[in-house]
Amino acid sequence: MKITRAESFILHVPITPPITDAINAASHWGLAGVRIFTDEGIVGCGYTGTCAEGDDLITRTIDRYYAPLLIGKDPFLVKELWDEMRYGKMHWIGRAGVTHMALAAVDIALWDIMAKAAGKPLWQYLGGHKSKRIKAYNTNGGWLNWSKDRLLKDVADIVEQGFTGVKMKVGKPDSREDYERVKAVRQTIGDEIILMIDVNQQWNINTAMTWAKKMEEFDLYWLEEPLNPDDILGHKKLAEELNIPIALGEHVYTKYAFRDYIHQGAVEYVQADVTRVGGITEWLQVAGLAAAYDLPICPHVGDMGQIHQHLVASTPGALMLEYIPWIRHIFAEPATVKDGYYILPQRPGASTDILPEYFEAYRVKS
Ligand SMILES: [Mg+2]
């Protein structure tokens, strides 16, 4: 099989109503991606996710630097192609961020092609581990811009729908407000539901130590991204001092950075995001690393679940997957959650094929 062409795309899918966490505000979810065409008629689709800013830098990297390397090559040589892209012309100016997100989009499209050629959903092509369903936890009721009333109504609805895990955002200017919101959510959902809080990097070490310590009484399942994602030492200190496990990984871009976090005991739930860490090729290596330390993996759902459901279903140490249903309607086989569990996809590929009508409706010129 040979690659004949690669075409980048940007889609902006509306988020209604717009949401915020401690550092991001989003009215649209951006997909910066690529479709890779082959001489056997199989087309692979891969993408990364953004808050609808900077997408053009990602697709420019794909068009100018990665796509030309692919033409005429066999997609089954995905690891060789990954090395050529990663250590090619862009290595000088980027080993994370834009370049790794572009690399992720291309890598995912290549794995999509391979799984389609094999006639298997990606989770089976990778070697299945969970054959029926995977546990979901819901983040979509816990946004920071939600009023307390709306927050409590939404988390109650989520539990009513059958979810057994809920995540909420914290990081308000006054941490006492965070404390009161977490307390109210715990009272609303009861003791049986697991509850995670996500700081989105907003705290410093002192705020984290003081307020996470106070919140231990709410039996939190994890504390997510309390500090700047480059601060391994700070997270290590929190992991040692707090009785809430530390979760992070959505802003960690390489297996080397994960190695340092993991080896130093600074992360306790590994949230590697396939759309940030350079694609499936690198994600699998991070998963192997976590497995050697017996650490659970719960991916950040930057792709809104389409690709990560395959990775969780094929990875022994992967416990559950976040659920945020903003963009699922645009896909030919949407990620589907029923009674709090993802139902595993059955079509060949990575579940990344986008319906033509939405591809046109949400397309943005780069
Ligand atoms: Mg997060």
UniProtKB/TrEMBL annotation:
Gene3D superfamilies: Enolase-like C-terminal domain (3.20.20.120), Enolase-like, N-terminal domain (3.30.390.10)
InterPro entries: Enolase-like_C_sf (IPR036849), Enolase-like_N (IPR029017), Enolase_C-like (IPR029065), Mandel_Rmase/mucon_lact_enz_CS (IPR018110), Mandelate_racemase_C (IPR013342), Mandelate_racemase_N_dom (IPR013341), RHMD-like (IPR046945)
Domain Mandelate racemase/muconate lactonizing enzyme C-terminal: 148-245
Cofactor: Mg(2+)
Keywords: Magnesium, Metal-binding
Coiled coil: none
Name of this chain's protein: Mandelate racemase/muconate lactonizing enzyme family protein
